[in-house]
Amino acid sequence: MTVREEIEQLKREKNAVILAHYYVRPEVQELADYIGDSFYLSKVAAGLKEQTIVFCGVSFMGESAKVLNPGKTVLMPDARADCAMAHMADAERIRRVREMYDDVAVVCYINSTAELKRLSDVCVTSANAVQIVKALPNRNIFFIPDKNLAHFVAEQVPEKHFIFNDGYCPVHEQIQTEQIRAAKAAHPDAEVLSHPECSRAVLELSDYVGSTSGIIRYAGESEAAEFIICTENGVRAELEKRYPGKKFYFTEAEPVCEDMKLVTPDKILRVLRTGENEVVMDEKLREESRQPLEEMLRLAK
Ligand code: 13P
Ligand code: SF4
Fold this sequence. Notes:
Pathway: Cofactor biosynthesis; NAD(+) biosynthesis; quinolinate from iminoaspartate: step 1/1. The protein has about 300 residues and is an alpha/beta fold.
């Protein structure tokens, strides 16, 4: 039997389903039942019927799936796959900001640990952050952990006062304006499509800014035939599959999230066989981090 056939057989035997983020390896994306950005995957995870969820992504994604689905078994193909930005905020600073501003809403990017989510009022993803922040009654917004997404949202919602944190995604921060200028010089007709985790200077050079799903959608809707993609290189697989007539370039040093790339077909097979790397959470932490995630799903409807 091939690895794929064995995975399919175990999925049937164990009533399992595979979810994958666009940043994982193409050969992993091909095995997924559901593939998408963080928002899509959290919506899917909240409504699954299957008993076992194999989450091909990083730890905050598996954790969120467990929080939204406490009765299910969530398995991570590689337990080391983590997101550096998920840890880049501080409980003490959140407490101080809450003391300073009466009506503050702590808005927590889903790329965060459950420990940070439990201290927050609402979660957001890059696909729904503007919509959710607009919908909040609060004027003061403390946006954690990502400073770049925070600045992007603040520009779209000028009526609110933002307090910024200093977290960032090391993968998207690598993308520099000089690299974009060089790519534009090589492909002058290409449009620049960027993820809001990129720096403000990069976003200023972009024709479109959006989540990974937003980028994929925009590339299909645009009349342009060539694009410079400023996000993790895993999205290439979906872009090329959907739009074979269009061309996609990345900046010279292609952005790669090494944690996302830890997931391989062999590791999926292994956890399906053994039940290893199950996401186990403290009950109180799970319950407290559930509210901001559910608030996100409610406000983003
Ligand atoms: P989206 O899935 O919201 O596009 O975010 C990208 C990301 O960094 C996921 O880790
Ligand atoms: Fe985290 Fe950046 Fe990797 Fe996304 S790409 S998982 S934000 S380190």
